[in-house]
Structures are given as C-alpha cells and as structure tokens.
Amino acid sequence: MEDSRPRLSLIRMAQAVNDETIQTAENLFREYLRDRGLKYTDERRIMLRTAMRVDEHFEAEQILLAVRGAGIRIGKATVYRTLKLLVACGIVKEVHFSNKQVHYEHTYGQDPHDHMICRRCGRIIEFDASQVVRLRAQIAAELRFHALSHRLQIVGLCEACVKACPVGMQARPSTGRPRRASKARRK
After folding, report:
1. What pLDDT was estimated at residue 16?
2. Who contacts 60 (Cβ-Cβ below 8 Å, separation ≥6)?
3. What is the arithmetic mean of pLDDT over 80-85?
4. Is the N or C terminus of the chain more exposed, i.e. has fewer CB atoms within 10 Å?
5. What is the pLDDT of residue 186?
6. 89-109 pLDDT per residue, tens
C-alpha cells in the first residue's frame, strides 16, 4: 500500500538572486519609498543590493560590516531604519529564532518556506511545505480572514543531535497531553 501523505522537501537557505531580480526589487523599493514621500538614497540602494546578495539568514550587524567592508560609509541607524523599510516593503522578512537577536532573510524572488530549529546545536532547517499554505488558506476562509502571510517554526532536535543524545534522553513525539509529574515530584 502506497503512502498518500504529502511529502515535505528540504530547501536551501535563501538563494542568491540574479541582477534582473535585484533590479526589479529596486524598482519596487523605489516606488514604495516614493509613495511614502521618502527618497531612494545611495545608502538604501546599497543596503538593498547587499541584503539581496546574502544567501543565508543575516543580522543587521552583518550588513553593516559588509557595506563598511566595501569602503562605504554608513551609520548603524541607517542600516536599522532601512531594514525596517525593506521589511515593510516585503523584500526582506524578519525571522526570530530561539535567541533574542533578530535575523533577516530576503524573500523577494524566493519560494515561501518555514523553519525547523534545533534547540541543541542551533541548526536551522528550511522546508517547503505547500500544505501549510493550503491549511492557512482554509483556516482563513473558515474564519473570514484575509491572510497575507504566516510564520511557522518547529523547535526540536535535528537528526544529528538526537543520535548524539544518551539513550533515554532522546526526543519523543508529543502526545498532546501534559506529562504527569513523577512520584518524587508529587510529594
């Protein structure tokens, strides 16, 4: 008997994009800024291009160092303000993992995906799960809600960390029920 469940596929982190995609993103960002009475400055253009060329999750500090490393003077506040604008425009997305630091990834020209985060080693596994998008649409329709996006993070242990755990400490699937306290704890 064949398994008819939908298959999940692992995907690579955000992939580098070509010059045409970057140019289209620039046009979108320029229009977004113009509609809000803001200027498309050289610093904003450089920030956009730098973020679009990163093929992994990044922090604001990484962008700051990359831009400064290219010999361009840019202030920390400009980096944070521009990232906020890129997020609002939909070109970049904020991603929150287990630590307090905000990470970003460019989403323009990328396929939608979700994340699994290993609590032990910090590995981030991206996956494409189109059934999540279908479920989002179904739930939104039932509740008469217009969904624009979603954020799904599955936290657990990656295969390598599960194998490295001592016997008896390995992760077990959740039953959905709260665990009872041991007899020693109940006293």
Report:
1. 61
2. 76, 79, 80, 83, 102, 104
3. 95
4. N
5. 44
6. 988 888 776 667 787 887 766
HEC letters along the chain: CCCCCCCCEEECCCCCCCHHHHHHHHHHHHHHHHHCCCCCCHHHHHHHHHHHHCCCCECHHHHHHHHHHCCCCCCHHHHHHHHHHHHHHCCEEEEECCCCCEEEEECCCCCCCEEEEECCCCCEEEEECHHHHHHHHHHHHHCCCCCCCCCCEEEECCHHHHHHCCCCCCCCCCCCCCCCCCHHHHC
Residues 95, 112: Cα–Cα separation, whole Å: 13
* Ordered structural domains, the chain, with CATH: 9-110 (1.10.10.10), 112-163 (3.30.1490.190)
The percent of residues in the chain predicted with pLDDT above 70, rounded, is 74
Q: Is the pTM of this model over 0.85?
A: no
